[in-house]
From TrEMBL:
Protein name as catalogued: Uncharacterized protein
Disordered as annotated region, ranges: 117-136
Tree of life domain: Archaea
InterPro entries (UniProt xref): DUF7567 (IPR055989)
């Protein structure tokens, strides 16, 4: 099972999937090693869901680099820094995200990690208040 086979079977997937750590949608395919976020080096592995059309992603943060916009996947005593999600659909009709969570969510009720697409944009909100216009 090389990565080449994965690419063929799931064509278009990496146009849809964003990195949950930093929000990047740029991926690097390293033959025999896997697919890594070009920005923060989080590893992404694809699996086939049982009985559904779509795909399952597993993100491994073991080798994630520290980047400005990144929040690393939480690690617990039980689990490595892993998060996974399921997308349903096909390349022709499009994919949509069905669920997504960090493994640590299952053991820590107070796990505050959110994937990049659920986080509040930090800078954009501040800008709204930065330049008040006064009319005279
Ligand atoms: Zn990333």
């Amino acid at each position: 099972m090389g990565i080449v086979e994965t690419e063929d079977r799931y064509s278009g997937v990496f146009d849809v999937v964003k990195c949950p750590v930093c929000g990047s949608d740029k991926w690097t395919h390293l033959v025999y090693q896997g697919v890594f976020c070009r920005n923060c080096n989080t590893k992404c592995t694809l699996r086939e869901p049982a009985g559904d059309q779509g795909f399952i992603t597993e993100f491994d943060g073991t080798y994630t680099w520290s980047v400005d916009d990144g929040e690393k996947i939480p690690e617990t005593e039980e689990y490595a820094p892993v998060a996974s999600g399921k997308w349903l659909g096909t390349e022709n009709i499009g994919y949509h995200r069905h669920w997504f969570s960090a493994r640590a969510d299952h053991v820590h009720d107070d796990c505050e990690w959110e994937p990049a697409w659920n986080r509040e944009p930090k800078n954009e909100n501040e800008d709204e208040h930065s330049y008040p216009t006064t009319e005279r």
